[in-house]
């Protein structure tokens, strides 16, 4: 993993997550940290897994399966990604 990736702020990660979620935002709603995958974006579990795979590929990380139930909102995802890349 590149050293500069470890120094990304949660805000920078959230900005990247916004770019990665754009193709999944079929309702074209304004995305915030409190945007929910299910109730706001109407993403099914397969779409959420596809998004997660895109995030994992982008950061070259693996999101542990045991934390997935805690990732309902986009802000939770960017915070989790930051925690993972910082080790």
Automatic annotation (TrEMBL):
Keyword terms of this UniProt record: Phosphopantetheine, Phosphoprotein
Pfam families for this protein: PP-binding
GO terms for MF: acyl binding; acyl carrier activity
Gene3D superfamilies: ACP-like
Statement: the UniProt record of this protein carries the keyword Transport: no
Any one GO cellular component localisation term in the record: cytosol
Source superkingdom: Bacteria
Positions of the Carrier domain: 4-87
Entry-linked InterPro entries: ACP (IPR003231), ACP-like_sf (IPR036736), PP-bd_ACP (IPR009081)
SUPFAM superfamilies assigned to the protein according to its UniProt record, in alphabetical order: ACP-like
Example GO BP: lipid A biosynthetic process
Keyword Phosphoprotein: yes
Stated name of the protein: Acyl carrier protein
Phylogenetic placement of the source organism: Bacteria, Pseudomonadati, Pseudomonadota, Alphaproteobacteria, Emcibacterales
